[in-house]
Amino acid sequence: MPHNLLVDGPEQGVQIFTLNRPDVLNALNTELLNNLCKALDNAEADPEVHAVVITGNQKAFAAGADINEMAARDLVGILEDPRVAHWERIARFTKPIIAAVNGFALGGGCELAMHADILIAGENARFGQPEINLGIMPGSGGTQRLTRKVGEALAMHMTLTGEQIDATRALQAGLISEICQPELTVERAIEIGKTIARKAPIAIRLTKESVRKANDISLSDGLRFERHAFTLLAGTADRQEGLDAFREKRAPRFKGK
């Protein structure tokens, strides 16, 4: 496996991806994003993987994009930036992603965390989009995803000033779902992943897709999509298994069918 991305598992349905460039606070260069996308491709195709945890280390989830790499690109280089395709691939991943954030999640690191479906943070986490300090702006979803998650007022403040927020403010704003002790953040993310892994895979996939649609389409279209997905599940064996297990007062045995 590549040295800049550690892959563990799957174990009980959960695979862990650890960003591993500690000398640069896990800055996201093209190679690391490419390796992450390859790992996601493998996880997508692996029926034993039901959820993915992405994390860094205690000091940094990821402190931004690789500045040296960015500085080497001119206008044409930015237009042809292969990282655009990498970000699109991460966004297309159909299985749940849980981000376990400790330390800095800044710039591209914050944008990567916001690609997760569930985001939990240690008490030491710091979130920010500091690109404005370099005379640039977020370019991988920082203005769009942040606004959808925390609202225009806070998104404007963070992107225009470059100021960071701590885990408590991130929880209050709706950026994250819970706060943990830093040393327990990954453990908690794995626990959540294992809970998801015990559910019906097709229902998980359609639920994720339906919730994501809420950001992109009108309420009426979203409700129509939700009902269509709900109806499709009526044809699955897992739905029948879930109903039977409930009536028989036993744990369901879902098979993704």
Automatic annotation (TrEMBL):
<keyword id="KW-0456">Lyase</keyword>
<comment type="similarity">
    <text>Belongs to the enoyl-CoA hydratase/isomerase family.</text>
</comment>
<protein>
    <submittedName>
        <fullName>2,3-dehydroadipyl-CoA hydratase</fullName>
        <ecNumber>4.2.1.17</ecNumber>
    </submittedName>
</protein>
<dbReference type="Pfam" id="PF00378">
    <property type="entry name" value="ECH_1"/>
</dbReference>
<dbReference type="InterPro" id="IPR018376">
    <property type="entry name" value="Enoyl-CoA_hyd/isom_CS"/>
</dbReference>
<dbReference type="InterPro" id="IPR014748">
    <property type="entry name" value="Enoyl-CoA_hydra_C"/>
</dbReference>
<dbReference type="GO" id="GO:0004300">
    <property type="term" value="F:enoyl-CoA hydratase activity"/>
</dbReference>
<dbReference type="InterPro" id="IPR029045">
    <property type="entry name" value="ClpP/crotonase-like_dom_sf"/>
</dbReference>
<dbReference type="GO" id="GO:0006635">
    <property type="term" value="P:fatty acid beta-oxidation"/>
</dbReference>
<dbReference type="InterPro" id="IPR001753">
    <property type="entry name" value="Enoyl-CoA_hydra/iso"/>
</dbReference>
